[in-house]
Automatic annotation (TrEMBL):
It comes from Fontibacillus phaseoli. The keyword S-adenosyl-L-methionine does not apply. PROSITE patterns: FPG_CAT, ZF_FPG_2. It catalyses: Hydrolysis of DNA containing ring-opened 7-methylguanine residues, releasing 2,6-diamino-4-hydroxy-5-(N-methyl)formamidopyrimidine. InterPro entries: FPG_cat (IPR012319), FPG_N (IPR035937), H2TH_FPG (IPR015886), Ribosomal_uS13-like_H2TH (IPR010979), Znf_DNA_glyclase/AP_lyase (IPR000214), Znf_FPG/IleRS (IPR010663). Residues 2-136 form the Formamidopyrimidine-DNA glycosylase catalytic domain. GO terms for molecular function: 8-oxo-7,8-dihydroguanine DNA N-glycosylase activity; class I DNA-(apurinic or apyrimidinic site) endonuclease activity; damaged DNA binding; zinc ion binding. This is Formamidopyrimidine-DNA glycosylase. Belongs to the FPG family.
Length: 272
């Protein structure tokens, strides 16, 4: 599932191409991806302009020029592609939005994901439960420590809890734990102040590095996009079962906890 780095990469790149361009055509191939009737969605969106693209956690919010919002959550397997009709990817699309004469934003893999049309108030209310942004202005080491020190349970369970810290999922929770030298199964109540400090630094370093590398999406956003997917080769432990740890050389282990897979290096990650 796309996480903060993937969605932030999309936000940055899309903002270069679609802002203030009139939406000239909307095609809906899967009405279940919407929250309103297909005809109403097409009528409401056609002729509008996107004036701002915002990311909140794993969501993108397209701010329309009439004050309404399109909220996108790609969920598992969702992708975006931006190009001309001649560039159309050989993938099934659920929604297609054309900007100007021929720039089309293709929404792919929205079997579980969605694109909802909401008022500004409805959009705010739908995301109100989300926790603090890990790289936002309101986050610092003290805030981070207070958040985690109030929690019990495993490190990974808390890191992926969107109501606590928003935007981190399976992949980057494991990468953050590795960077901090802690196992994803480590109990928060057993960690020291130094561990919390290491975790905070690791969280920032991993998320910034992976965002700058373009995230791990399998499909470039545009035909000339050389950035998206660049973090695939930067993961140290996630999806590296059996490979040698780049830090200690031990074999990376795959395990499962509460229905989530996790990866770690037993030689240099500890439970404390």
């Amino acid at each position: 599932m796309p996480e903060l780095p993937e969605m932030e990469n999309y936000r940055i790149q899309l903002s270069k191409y679609i802002l203030d361009q009139p939406i000239t055509e909307v095609v809906v191939n899967r009405e279940k991806s919407l929250n309103v009737a297909q005809e109403a969605f097409i009528r409401e969106v056609t002729g509008r302009q996107v004036i701002f693209v915002e990311r909140r956690a794993k969501h993108l919010l397209f701010h329309l020029d009439n004050g309404r919002r399109l909220i996108l959550h790609l969920m598992l397997g969702g992708l975006l592609y931006l190009g001309s009709k001649e560039d159309r990817p050989s993938r099934t699309t659920q929604i297609e939005i054309t900007f100007g004469s021929d720039i089309v934003l293709y929404f792919i893999g929205l079997r579980l994901g969605y694109l909802h049309l909401l008022s500004a108030k409805e959009a705010e209310e739908s995301l109100d439960h989300l926790g603090i942004e890990p790289l936002g202005r309101k986050m610092n080491e003290d805030v981070f420590m207070k958040l985690l020190s109030k929690r019990r349970g495993s490190l990974k369970t808390v890191l992926v809890n969107q109501d606590v810290i928003a935007g981190i999922g399976n992949c980057y929770a494991d990468e953050i734990a590795f960077a901090a030298g802690l196992r994803p199964t480590a109990k928060l109540q057993n960690l020291s102040k130094e561990d919390y400090s290491s975790l905070y630094s690791a969280m920032r370093e991993v998320l910034i590095e992976m965002t700058e590398a373009g995230g791990y999406m399998e499909l470039p956003l545009t035909k000339d996009d050389k950035l998206t997917g660049g973090s695939n080769d930067l993961c140290r432990v996630y999806d590296r079962e059996g490979e040698a740890c780049p830090r200690c050389g031990d074999s990376i282990v795959k395990a499962e906890m509460n229905g989530r897979k996790l990866f770690y290096s037993p030689g240099c990650q500890h439970d404390r």
